[in-house]
Amino acid sequence: MIISLAKIQAPIAKEMKEFEKKFYSSVSTKVILLDTIMEYIIKRKGKQIRPMFIFLSAGTCGRISESTFHGATLIELLHQATLVHDDVVDDANLRRGFFSLNALWKNKIAVLVGDFLFSRGLLLSLQNKEYDQLELFSMAVKEMSEGELLQMEKSRGLNIAEADYLKIIKQKTASLFASCCAVGAKSAGATNEVVEKMKLFGEHIGMAFQIKDDLFDYGETNIGKPLGIDIKEKKMTLPLINALSRTTEKERRKIIKIVKNESGKGSKINEVVRFVKESGGLDYATSKMNEYQNMATTILNEFPNSEYKNSLNQLVLYCINRIK
């Protein structure tokens, strides 16, 4: 059974409501077009899992402070900026069931909106003198950009090994989760040793989170993300990488040829999905996801029991058991 986010949020419900107000205030502008777009972004906001990790990490490591709110606002600004830019790069028309900004207002405006969100995050950090937070999140954005480019480079030849894949998702996804947990700990006054421990905790969760996301591509239910979209976009994810590593050279060449030249055909996508399932690729990816989750839980178990720690553990379980 998956625990609802509302129950997980219980220890920080008050803080999350206050955070939403602070975030809305941070993107307020007198430019009518920009203000309209900001309202649209707020309307289509997701589950806000990353700010939750910040608040719960702070509570687990000490106490939630004003600095925690600064970190949560910064992460949401930077996260929204990267989503806007990702949609432009991917030429995506939908995001969380809503039309993407580039679909409604075209690429030029979407890029500028992403720039605005980035600049607001930078300015807020400087105004609040949150230099440590700014450094952590700037490093995460750098890692995310490098990871995206590395994936593009490797995808050209469809020759990504598991080690390449793990490096890519560590940079693209896990780096941001790691920063969230580190900032949460730092804002609570934790020692550098504890901050590093929470950073590693967040990295493990980010790895598990991305593997779970990749598993959705082979699901059998509508999760808001088109099934087989990674295959169609020629993205080599862990289930496929592992399946290819344990098959014959003839079958490997056949599947790679389909992904490279015929991934636009529904019947061919289904053929790849069947191959991955029958080859044990899904089982392997699931076991790898659980491995990262166990490493994260081991770290979390070192902290004293509290309602924050309990919710943080439940949030970890939510990330790997979610259905969309």
What can you tell me about this protein's structure?
With 324 residues, the chain is an all-alpha fold. Among the domains are: 9-136, Farnesyl Diphosphate Synthase (Orthogonal Bundle); 230-300, no CATH class. It contains 15 helices and two strands. It has helices spanning 5-8, 13-26, 32-43, 49-61, 66-90, 101-127, 131-155, 162-187, 192-215, 229-232, 238-245, 249-261, 266-278, 281-300, 307-321; strands at residues 94-95, 98-99. The protein has a two-stranded antiparallel sheet with strand order 1-2. The chain is globular, with a radius of gyration of 20 Å.
Contiguous uncertain segments of 5+ residues: 221-225
CATH architecture of the domain at 9-136, by name, is Orthogonal Bundle
Order of helices and strands: HHHHHEEHHHHHHHHHH
CATH class of the domain at 9-136: Mainly Alpha
Kindly report the spatial arrangement of strands forming the biggest sheet. Answer: 1-2
Summed up, the helix count is 15
Distance N terminus to C terminus?
14 Å
Total number of β-strand segments? Answer: 2
Quick summary:
With 324 residues, this protein is an all-alpha fold. 75% of the residues lie in helices and 1% in strands.
What is this structure's SSE topology?
Blueprint lengths: L4 H4 L4 H14 L5 H12 L5 H13 L4 H25 L3 E2 L2 E2 L1 H27 L3 H25 L6 H26 L4 H24 L13 H4 L5 H8 L3 H13 L4 H13 L2 H20 L6 H15 L3
Antiparallel strand pairs: 1-2
Helix pairs in contact: 2-5, 4-5, 4-8, 4-15, 5-6, 5-7, 5-8, 7-8, 8-9, 9-14, 9-15, 11-13, 11-14, 14-15
